[in-house]
Amino acid sequence: MKDSAEWIETLNKITCLAQSGLYYSKDIYDKERYQQLLNHVRTLINLKEIDTTHFIPNVLQDIGYATPKIDVRAVVFKDNKLLLARETQDGLWSVPGGWADVGYSAAESAEKEVLEETGLEVRAVKLLALTDRRKHPHPTMFLHVYKAFFWCELIGGKAKPSIETSEVGFFGRDELPPISTARVTEAQIHHFFELKRELPQNTYFD
């Protein structure tokens, strides 16, 4: 697993350099070389049998200076139970969230994700954590991702599933369903329950 993660991280760095080179270079021959680099990276990924689901839409079609992508997540409690949604993609459960949308602030994106995935209306009140996905025990992924976790207050709506989610519910600490660690780790969820007692003054990072 460690070797695979290092392999993916190295290829990701090469990809980012090639992306930035394509954007800033004015020389057509250099642009061709950078494009060839991206093609070679894609070949190496396929040879290693790494999941390339997000490679074309999120990497090859990206333009400009290469930067990490932002995943926003909402932490919502009701009667000491945490809001979780069952993802249709892997059948596992996660705090609501997804990629941040252009035209929305990070907090607005988190609120929007909750409404779309669960039917519930929330208000983001505090940024709990801004983490680097690589520094936590999530499954290896080609993209370099920052994850923003917002503490949100429940203000309305009615719980219901969506295109992205098959079930929605509130769960106590001792009754958690199987967790989608690609989105949130069990350690992070248990930390959220600890924070329920008193929100921290400072935001956790890294």
Automatic annotation (TrEMBL):
Residues 67-197 form the Nudix hydrolase domain. The keyword NADP does not apply. CDD domains: NUDIX_CDP-Chase_like. InterPro entries: NUDIX_hydrolase-like_dom_sf (IPR015797), NUDIX_hydrolase_dom (IPR000086), UDP-X_N (IPR059176). Keywords: Hydrolase. Pfam families: NUDIX (PF00293), Nudix_N (PF12535). GO terms for molecular function: hydrolase activity. This is NUDIX hydrolase. It comes from Acinetobacter suaedae. The lineage of its organism: Bacteria, Pseudomonadati, Pseudomonadota, Gammaproteobacteria, Moraxellales.
